[in-house]
Design goal:
Largest sheet: 8 strands, parallel
Shape: globular
Number of strands: 29
Helix content: 25-40%
Structural class: alpha/beta
Mean pLDDT: 93
Distance between the termini: 30 Å
Number of helices: 13
């Protein structure tokens, strides 16, 4: 159920001077905090899941090294990966629950230069292959701080006898752009290096169960012949094919969604419709399972209604199955034009005080007002933390913008993670997020300033790993701690969905409610999250064993397996 579900040994204690503490990833280690941890790391993971924890080392360290570690058990050894957590100095809080000062976020190579004024925290992760033999895997992690050996950390992973799907069961689409990546890394967008970087960024998203829209941005070239659109798919297929056919990762993970890239060469209504028809046919011919969708005008105002209706008519006239996604609250003005209704998360949960959504309706209510084929997605925006930054003078307004599930740097880790649990509990069909590299396209230094739209990190889940910043000679994407939490949330969703499929949906729903009663009533207690995960895991194991016993009984009695 994700990285943050690692649970520590029962005896919790402060590390001795010069020692190492093992701390839950659901704790953001800050300079003014004195987290208590465990002597050893004990993790639980399903097959096909990544699980991690944090090692807090003595402060004032400028260089951390670790010996390669392979955990031994009943199957092939499990490898352990590690990064050092770099800190973002927050100058303006995202809202009243944010704080100024250093916050951990970027996960940089251990070899990258460190700031000795910040805590020394290493993020350690184990990814379990889908066919890994279940059982206990153990080893001992050895590290050194500035050349001085630290006490070894016993490391244990319990691999559970059930498997999570490689591709997310919850469709999602997060924005990313080749042009923003190129600008953030200071390289030409049309260079082979930029295209290789785009693939690396997309791969990092897919490794975290996230699908992307935008990507290379450029649409396939098109010509029109006898009313048909003839597209040159060579560049598009080279870029997107590995993400859509499951060949990019050994797990076979695929993007769950893909956006139609509009083409200006299609200028008339008839040409646009022919172009959309060709787009849909290409996906069908390729056998790509991703949900192709058309992203209409973003957050349309009343004056944009005719535009959205015209966009939807052209797409629908293609006579196929491309749904039109519109980021709006329930609004009768868009009836007949919306196939994927996508309101902000605030629109799903009523709340006292100033209203942050004009039409509040839960998923079930929204579906009663939509055509049967329509889907309901949701997304986060600055309405979940306030669009101006810092606590507003009006305390009621600050409360209205506080406590929501959030992807902000200066918010607690459980808020970063909660969308998966909330998606299960609410029954939404998918999640949209507008961008993952937005700040790359600004003039600011992303490593020192991620303040956008009133929040720290809104629209940016990566950092540009340039040679100047990390050393070496190659550019690389640097993932954030928040992206790990998002991945953990998507794995939470898989656990709860699996338990439901095994006939224990009532328990799964109760478990979800214990962690998140609503979009703004989310447990901040790591121990509560860990306890719920343990219970859910044990229920899955028990239910699955019972199902296997039934099947075995049918086989031995001569029944159909």
């Amino acid at each position: 159920m994700g990285v943050g579900w690692a649970w520590a040994v029962a005896a919790v204690l402060s590390a001795a001077p010069g020692g190492v503490q093992v701390v839950s990833p659901l704790v953001k280690v800050r300079p003014d905090a004195t987290p208590k941890g465990a002597k050893e790391a004990r993790l639980s993971a399903a097959r096909g899941e990544c699980e991690g924890t944090q090692l807090v080392l003595p402060q004032g360290v400028t260089r951390v090294t670790m010996q390669p570690l392979a955990l031994k058990g009943p199957g092939a050894p499990l490898t352990v990966d590690a990064w050092r957590e770099a800190y973002l100095d927050v100058k303006t809080p995202s809202n009243g629950e944010g704080r100024t000062g250093p916050w951990p976020d970027a996960l940089v190579p251990l070899s990258a230069p460190a700031n000795p004024r910040h805590p020394t925290v290493v993020y350690v992760e184990v990814c379990v292959p889908a066919k890994q033999a279940p059982g206990t895997y153990t080893g001992s992690l050895s590290a050194a701080a500035d050349g001085k050996d630290l006490p070894a950390v016993p490391f244990m992973v319990e691999v559970r006898p059930f498997e999570l799907p490689a591709t997310s069961s919850l469709p999602n689409s997060f924005g990313i752009s080749l042009y923003s990546i190129a600008k953030g890394h200071g390289i030409p967008a049309d260079s082979p290096e930029a295209k290789a970087l785009l693939r690396a960024y997309g791969k990092a998203l897919l490794e975290h169960r996230v699908s992307a829209h935008g990507m290379g941005m450029d649409p396939p070239p098109v010509k029109f012949q006898d009313g048909r659109a003839v597209l040159d798919w060579s560049a598009y297929d080279a870029e997107m094919g590995p993400f859509l056919d499951g060949t990019l990762l050994p797990s076979g993970a695929r993007f769950t969604t893909a956006d139609v890239r509009d083409n200006r060469k299609a200028s008339t209504d008839a040409e646009k419709t022919a172009y959309y028809r060709a787009f849909q046919k290409h996906f069908e011919d390729k056998g790509w399972k991703a949900q192709l969708f058309f992203y209409a005008k973003d957050e349309p105002k009343a004056a944009d209604v005719p535009l959205v209706k015209a966009q939807a008519k052209r797409v629908h006239d293609a006579g196929g199955t491309i749904p039109v996604l519109v980021t709006t609250a329930l609004d009768p003005a868009f009836n007949g034009s919306v196939d994927i209704l996508t309101p902000i998360i605030n629109c799903f949960y009523p709340r006292e005080g100033p209203q942050t959504c004009r039409t509040v309706a839960n998923t079930a209510t929204a579906r009663t007002r939509l055509p049967s084929r329509a889907k309901v997605w949701w997304y986060q925006s600055c309405m979940a933390h306030g669009c101006t930054g810092g606590p507003p003078p009006d305390k009621a307004l600050d409360k209205a913008y506080s406590d929501w599930a959030s992807y902000m740097v200066d918010h607690p880790a459980p808020l970063n993670r909660a969308m998966g649990v909330l998606a299960f509990e609410s029954g939404v069909d998918g999640e949209l997020y507008f961008d993952t590299v937005f700040a790359y396209n600004t003039k600011k230094d992303v490593w020192t300033d991620l303040f956008e739209f009133g929040g720290n990190g809104d629209g940016t889940l990566f950092y540009p790993g340039t040679p100047a910043k990390l050393g070496g000679t190659e550019h690389q994407p640097v993932v954030s701690l928040r992206l790990k939490h998002i991945r953990d949330g998507l794995e939470d969703y898989e656990y709860l969905r699996l338990l439901t499929s095994l006939g224990d949906g009532a328990f799964a729903r109760t478990a979800a409610k214990r962690l998140a009663k609503s979009g703004y009533e989310i447990s901040r207690d790591p121990a509560e999250w860990e306890a719920v995960r343990k219970e859910v895991t044990e229920r899955i194991v028990k239910r699955q064993a019972a199902e296997e016993a039934k099947r075995s009984g049918r086989r031995t009695s001569g029944g159909t397996p």
